[in-house]
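Write out this protein's structure.
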Amino acid sequence: MKPYFAPPEYHTPADYRAPLLHRLLPRAVSFYSGVLRCIVRAQYYAARGRFDQTELGNTSALAIRLFERSGARFHITGLDQLATVPGGAVIIGNHMSSLETFALPCLVIPWKPICFVIKDSLLRHPLFGAIMRAQTTVAVSRTNPREDLAAVLHGGERVLRDGCAFCLFPQSTRHVAFDEGKFNTLGVKVARRAGAMVVPVALRTDYWGNGRLIKDMGPVGRCRDVHIAFGAPLSPELPQAELHGRVVAFIRDRLAGWGVPTVGGAAAERPPATPGAAPEPPP
């Protein structure tokens, strides 16, 4: 598949001007109308049994274009890193907002099918159920940590052997600050178990803020720059502590360069109550 954004990097053009209507609308109205448009598109194709990886990628690319119309400026680097990885890969990143689950698919799918960890309740959700069931996912209950851990380990190994890119957010909960102490080792454990390369990704996506009452309905545009950086692939043959340390160091250093604070101490060894889940659905 031809990449949606030409590697190795993409930046919103400095002279980009949104259509007049979007410049006249309040930023939040423009942004959330784009989110709604992507969801409706996904539902349309899912209801017809056509929401495959290609359509997921198309919807994701549309989301980036629509977010640019609301004022977001994207800076994406390392777009060619996945192209160098044979077979499946584990993508491990920090989890800042819902925006990354909309943006990541079109950056990954040209190279490999993408798989997220989701809450199993989303498979039955009246709004997102058909969309989730149409995709390759690994579902967790968020009620039994031991069963969830087994589901991620076994499910991740399965999709990696099928050549997928298995995307994990070890922080679990969305935070702007990068908390090393809550960034668990589950991602590298899955990679070592399956013998799959690890690709770290650093994300600054607080253009879409987290809401106080409804987390997915937060403020828009406090920081207009969206940064997504894929790192060089890392071998699963590295010792677990070294592999995890390299992932953490890549994310921490990139975030520091973008002005994002780091809190906490050394990365935790035990998995969190909800391992690596992406609680909000991809587009």
